[in-house]
């Protein structure tokens, strides 16, 4: 023993967890309350997380001053990496504090609160010691955190990539990244875990090694694929540091130190690539959906059955073209080689996509955004050119939620949306893409789990990034629907819920309502050109007393159909009878009068909607807002002087030289 140093300053302090982080020591210590009769709430927060610099000199080890990271906190297990420290709740004794993890970044003086399974992440920079109080840190998040479920942690360890490996009591292995996000890796076998079934975790390069009940699992961290499962001769195992060797594992047991190599020789006995396995799994789902048999279809049956040749052919092509780049066509059948030449463009696209994913992972922060936009565009385009089922729709929802701006750019690119010289929105998308946008699972099929159909996703993007284009986009989709589906066809989207109503539903889900949203609602109603929607927009404008716009809408949409013309004119005539706001626009309104309306019809509408006077009416009111015959006279004259429809029908008979016409000659 060369030297001992006192880590804690308080005589009554007790260390419960300690780790080495760079040139510092980080620990969690218990500071018992001075009053022995303190209540349980105070006792639960009697811990403190501290750090001290550790300097090795010729005279010996010297410790720096104690710096408090967090005080008045519950008990934490501290696990360190080179740039950050994970604080894992040690017990589930206090309900709220066992629902989240803490991640401390010493260089940035930042503390991140994360509840990975719930997707909650909140970071705060600790500028002063007063901000290090645990209860003040949680003050703004307690209400939200109280609704989360407690963390399910059986075992925790830090990976060589800086992530926190967590094993749940159900056997699920997840990794929490330094930014607070969580990713699932693998599920261990053996059912629920207890405190009597310890789990050992260690990462070697991209390989995760787990030992549970004498069984060694080797798992690829990136894909979650089980590489190998090995039964050991002993149950108690401790992993040793690899010292740069990432292709072997050193294990300390009661009988000695053992080395296990998991590097594979490049021969035919190597396991199949993950992509090939995915081909067979996808084929299983595809054929199972279309099978009339109740028997379960498995990957083994697909490989050995010989009935389904498509997945076998695709797997052979992928193995030769993607994983043997030097000899891509070696050993392929002639039919496969022909198929390979047909698929060469698709394979090239796949390889470029994989390369792009690698660039996203390895790129510096300032380049990540551009790579993500390109990646999202390729993914959105790929999904739009495949069958949009519930899984693909859920995937698209997650893309639009995680990368809204990139998804908006991808949508514009896939639909080829742009403005022409007249400022009108045009789309040059193919009919197949339009069908994917308007078809696919609808709201009643996807349920109420937060997933919305693709049309609603695109409308939400328009509202967020280019709201002025939304009515034009709805109009474009209606034009495509009218070409592709018969009117009110049950197969088409208009046979379910009209597109303008679906767009209005997206607008209604906005959190904050503004005047621009009211204007957007009017534009969506009018762009549909449906009689009910146009009349609804007209009534909204009347309620808002925007009389100039009322007259413009009436003049424009009265030309669509005689029935709509009659409804619009009757509505405005009723308004004209009640107040004098429309008097400046009478020269524009009277020409809109339908041909079938007579003077009796007009007078009936006017008398029906006259305002009820509180007193007996007088001939000349001082208010000047009464309807007079003089205001109605131009309309009545116009109707009276208009030629009767029946006169036009019988004009030829009335103008004949002889009346009645001569009797036609009889045929003998």
From TrEMBL:
One of its GO terms (biological process) is protein localization to membrane. Residues 277-666 form the BLOC-2 complex member HPS6 C-terminal domain. GO terms for cellular component: BLOC-2 complex; lysosomal membrane. InterPro entries: BLOC-2_complex_Hps6_subunit (IPR017218), HPS6_C (IPR046822), HPS6_N (IPR046823). It comes from the Eukaryota. Residues 1-259 form the BLOC-2 complex member HPS6 N-terminal domain. This is Hermansky-Pudlak syndrome 6 protein.
């Amino acid at each position: 023993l060369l030297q001992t140093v006192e880590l804690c300053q308080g005589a009554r302090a007790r260390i419960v967890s300690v780790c080495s982080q760079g040139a510092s020591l980080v620990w969690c210590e218990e500071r018992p309350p001075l009053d022995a009769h303190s209540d349980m709430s105070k006792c639960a927060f009697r811990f403190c997380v501290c750090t001290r610099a550790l300097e090795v000199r010729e005279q010996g080890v010297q410790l720096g001053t104690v710096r408090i990271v967090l005080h008045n906190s519950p008990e934490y297990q501290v696990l360190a990496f080179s740039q950050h420290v994970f604080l894992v709740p040690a017990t589930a004794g206090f309900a709220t504090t066992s629902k989240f993890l803490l991640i401390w970044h010493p260089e940035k003086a930042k503390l991140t609160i994360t509840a990975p399974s719930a997707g909650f992440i909140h970071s705060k920079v600790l500028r002063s010691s007063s901000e290090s109080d645990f209860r003040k840190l949680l003050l703004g998040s307690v209400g939200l955190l109280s609704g989360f479920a407690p963390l399910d942690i059986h075992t925790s360890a830090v990976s060589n990539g800086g992530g926190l490996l967590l094993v749940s009591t159900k056997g699920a292995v997840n990794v929490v990244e330094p930014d607070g996000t969580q990713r699932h890796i693998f599920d261990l076998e053996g059912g629920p875990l207890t405190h009597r079934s310890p789990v050992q975790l260690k990462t070697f390069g991209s390989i995760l090694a787990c030992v549970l009940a004498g069984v060694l699992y080797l798992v690829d961290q990136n894909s979650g694929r089980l590489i190998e499962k090995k039964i050991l001769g002993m149950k108690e195992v401790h992993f040793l540091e690899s010292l740069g060797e990432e292709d072997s594992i050193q294990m300390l047991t009661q009988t000695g130190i053992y080395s296990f190599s998991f590097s594979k020789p490049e021969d035919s006995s190597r396991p199949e690539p993950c992509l090939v396995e995915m081909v067979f799994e996808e084929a299983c789902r595809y054929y199972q959906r279309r099978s009339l048999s109740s028997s379960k279809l498995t990957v083994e049956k697909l490989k050995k059955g010989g009935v389904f040749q498509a997945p076998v052919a695709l797997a052979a092509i992928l193995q030769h073209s993607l994983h043997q780049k030097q000899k891509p066509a070696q050993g392929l059948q002639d039919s496969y080689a022909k198929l390979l030449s047909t698929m060469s463009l698709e394979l090239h696209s796949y390889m470029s996509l994989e390369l792009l994913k690698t660039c996203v992972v390895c790129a510096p922060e300032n380049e990540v955004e551009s790579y993500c936009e390109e990646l999202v565009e390729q993914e959105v385009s790929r999904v739009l050119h495949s069958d949009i089922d519930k899984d693909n729709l859920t995937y698209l929802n997650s893309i639009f939620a995680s990368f809204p701006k990139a998804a908006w750019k991808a949508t514009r690119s896939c639909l080829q949306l742009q403005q022409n010289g007249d400022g009108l929105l045009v789309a040059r998308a193919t009919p197949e893409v339009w069908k994917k946008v308007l078809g696919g699972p609808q709201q009643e099929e996807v349920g109420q789990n937060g997933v919305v159909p693709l049309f609603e996703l695109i409308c939400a993007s328009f509202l967020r990034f280019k709201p002025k284009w939304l009515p034009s986009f709805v109009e474009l989709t209606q034009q495509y629907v009218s070409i592709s589906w018969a009117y009110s066809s049950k197969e088409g989207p208009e046979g379910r819920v009209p597109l303008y109503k679906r767009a209005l539903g997206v607008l209604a889900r906005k959190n904050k309502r503004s005047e621009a949203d009211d204007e957007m609602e009017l534009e969506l109603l009018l762009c549909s050109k449906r009689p009910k929607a146009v009349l609804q927009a007209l009534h909204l404008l009347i309620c808002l007393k925007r009389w100039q716009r009322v007259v413009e809408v009436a003049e424009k949409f009265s030309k669509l159909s005689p029935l709509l013309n009659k409804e619009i004119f009757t509505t405005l005539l009723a308004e004209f009878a009640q107040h004098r706001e429309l008097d400046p626009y009478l020269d524009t309104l009277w020409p809109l009068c339908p041909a079938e309306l007579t003077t009796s019809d007009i007078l009936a509408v006017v008398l029906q909607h006259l305002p009820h006077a509180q007193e007996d009416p007088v001939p000349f009111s001082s208010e000047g807002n009464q309807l007079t015959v003089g205001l109605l006279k131009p309309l009545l004259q116009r109707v009276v002087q208009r030629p009767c429809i029946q006169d036009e029908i019988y004009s030829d008979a009335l103008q004949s030289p002889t009346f009645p016409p001569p009797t036609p000659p009889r045929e003998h």
